[in-house]
Amino acid sequence: MTDEIIDLKELQNKLSPRTIIIIIVFILVVIAAFSSFYTVDQKEKAVVLRFGKYNRTMGPGLHFKLPFGMEKNYNVPTGRYITEEFGFRTKKPWETRQSKKDFSKESCMLCGDLNIVDITWTIQYRIEDPRAWLFNVENQVKTIRDISQSVINQLVGDLAAFDVVNTERPRIEDNGRTMMNNFFNRYGLGINVTSVKLLKIMVPRDAMDKPGKKGDEQ
User: Mind spelling out the 3-state secondary structure of the chain?
Assistant: First the structure.
């Protein structure tokens, strides 16, 4: 067994300086090759930084960048719709089952007539400016959720519970989308809200006690 042990010092002595240089150059070439190319999906755009500063935005395809970390790419999903859920959570995007956790802090709102309504709702948005998305706001998702929650609370708070369930649902959705986009543009988030959907609205029975109106859920 002792004869099979490789003597590193002896091996080092056998390698000429030229051989060592060739090995080093080969390793550097391999590293450069693997770190010089990146792929951008059809539904993405890549923001490229050079020495930590913005350099360019690239579309789908195979692209070259400077190796050894001199340039870094960040792929942003600009071609797909992103959904945020309020008052509930779908366990997986392809499933209809919902989490059993309590999200009432998001869904319970005070109306103008002092009734409490419980609303589950969603927003959908697309990232339109990947550079703004990456650099203008530190915590993008939290900012989106906080602003969206505030907007819907404000709109619901100006109405009676009866109106929230019946005539004013479309107006809440349309005005909510407009107000959210105004706020997001002001923050420079680089996104566009495409839809706001109120899904289920639960209200107290006495708030629905008007002629010709029955039920406590819409």
Answer: CHHHCCCHHHHHHHCCHHHHHHHHHHHHHHHHHHHCEEEECCCCEEEEEECCEEEEEECCEEEECCCCCCEEEEEECCCCCEEEEECCCECCCCCCCECCCCCHHHHEEECCCCCEEEEEEEEEEEECCHHHHHHCCCCHHHHHHHHHHHHHHHHHHCCCHHHHHCCCHHHHHHHHHHHHHHHHHHHCCCEEEEEEEEEEEECCHHHHCCCCCCCCEC
155-166: per-residue pLDDT in tens? 999 999 999 999
Q: What is the pTM of this model?
A: 0.79
Contact 150, 199 (CB under 8 A): no
For each of the domains in the chain, give its residue range(s) and CATH number, in order of start: 2-74 (no CATH), 82-208 (3.30.479.30)
Categorize the per-residue pLDDT at 33 as very low, low, confident or very high, splitting at 50, 70 and 90.
confident
Between residues 23 and 122, the one the model is more confident about: 122
5, 7, 13, 17, 141 from 2: Cα distances, Å: 5, 10, 20, 28, 61
